[in-house]
Design goal:
5-stranded parallel sheet; elongated; two-stranded parallel ribbon; alpha/beta; 9 strands; about 325 residues
Amino acid sequence: MNEEKYIVTIDGPDCSGKTYTWTNLQRKGVNVQIRGILSNIAYGLKYNRNVDEMIEMYNKNPLNYKIYLLMPQNSIKVDRLHSRLKSIYDSDAIICNLKDAIDTWKDGEYFDKAISLLEKTYKGKIEISRRTWQSDIDLTESAITDFISKNKIYSNDELKALNNIENGIIVLNEPIDTFESAAKCASEYKYIVFNEPLDKKDFIERLYNQAQDNDADVAKMFNNLIELTGKSYEEIYDEIFNYDGGTEPYDAFVEYLEDYELNVEVSAKVTVDTTVNLDIKLSEYSQYNYSDIEDYIYDNSDASDEIMNNLEDELRYAEFDRLEVNEVR
């Protein structure tokens, strides 16, 4: 086995399949990162940031990188652009999408320039494996897992120890679903952001602890939710984070609790009695040859209405003989 340790990253321009591949491997427990030193330098070059200063910062603790560079094919980009545009009818929206495509179409060139610059100035080891995600996703995943099996990779504990902003490295504890959004905020376009994955249970527990420290009402809602529904933390996470990246996790947590509606199945029983004084004309009763006076009352709408009205009045003030909650969802 190679004695050198590596950080394994999946990198590349937009729409190259990075997130799909990284998420898939993360869910399988593969120790791989997404976007690292290469993306920072590539987009630093594109947007005229001070990349020399960034590399100088990274060189304070130069790590070895095995980078799987996913490059989208033009034919795939054309298909995706066409698919997006054919469902848009607003001219301004079409122009906006076309401008975005123009702006990002040749981003791969910046990755090539970044590789060349890093090879000359970065003190750590940079190994690049170019892949075309669309044509061989399974082979790419196999290549990554095979490399990890044959080389030393920084463990999660070792990764955590690398957290040092002076060296340009930030290590977050985020679930897979929220990491990329959190990383964009933390990176400030210059820091390399890694993730020590946090599972769903730990993530919800962290939000609950934050509520306990800062908002007793939110903590109480959470406790009631658990007590009444028996939901697991994992289920709650899945219900909250169909994550779109637009809401901070704690804000989404609070909004979920505030908007949550309990679906409650209740059965109840009430016995209601009433006594009504009715005036019945003998002539009416005799006219239809009723067998007894109860038949007459059943058949007489005025009499029945008066009894029902009385029963409704009694029901408003009646106490339940039985009230049972059968199910809470």
